[in-house]
Design goal:
193 residues; mainly alpha; 12 helices; 75% helix; 0% strand
């Protein structure tokens, strides 16, 4: 007589196109200690429609397996960025966060240096550079991003980076420009007071 866990795994075999069945089977396989099969099932869950964020969260938060989350995200810049957002403030995961940040930064730098970088890559790398205290590079990246999306609230981060660099007038100009696009953007209003 199969046990409940075996039925959960069988559910994925019977419905391999079901994101829920794949995710449930992946969790069950993880509980049974079969990391390789669990990882394959998590990959399958993503392939059939489960969001990467949901899978990474299941690994980091529910299963307490950030190592498997990092393996799953490896080489995929969007997954790495999502994973970094989940682990960067957890003291016990700082070594992993550093590794994930380095991978994401390398992939984003490559994307931004391409002929036609995506606005998303520009924004993400700018934010990472600012967080690392590399404001001069962040400012350039924010400006490149804003050339494609001038009304984005990321202009506030540009103003903050300019201010940290001592470029107060430029920061004020960016805050005023932001308020042209977003009249009620509270943080910009407060900063200009």
């Amino acid at each position: 007589q199969p046990e409940a866990g075996d039925w959960i795994i069988r559910g994925m075999q019977l419905s391999p196109e079901s994101p829920e069945a794949c995710l449930a089977a992946a969790r069950q396989l993880l509980e049974q200690g079969d990391d390789a099969a669990a990882t394959a099932a998590f990959h399958r869950a993503i392939q059939v429609g489960t969001s990467s964020a949901r899978v990474l969260e299941a690994l980091v938060e529910d299963a307490a397996r950030p190592d498997l989350a990092a393996d799953l995200a490896d080489g995929d810049v969007r997954r790495l960025v999502v994973l970094l957002g989940m682990i960067h403030k957890k003291d016990e995961l700082q070594t992993l966060a550093t590794s994930v940040r380095q991978q994401a930064t390398a992939l984003l730098s490559e994307a931004v240096d391409s002929e036609s970088p995506t606005p998303w890559a520009l924004q993400q790398l700018a934010t990472m550079r600012a967080a690392a205290g590399q404001d001069a590079e962040a400012i350039q990246l924010y400006r490149r991003f804003l050339a494609t999306s001038p009304n984005d609230a990321i202009r506030f981060q540009l103003a903050q980076a300019l201010e940290r660099q001592g470029q107060i007038e430029a920061a004020i100009t960016e805050l005023r420009r932001l308020l042209i696009y977003r009249r009620n953007y509270g943080p910009a209003k407060q900063r200009l007071r």
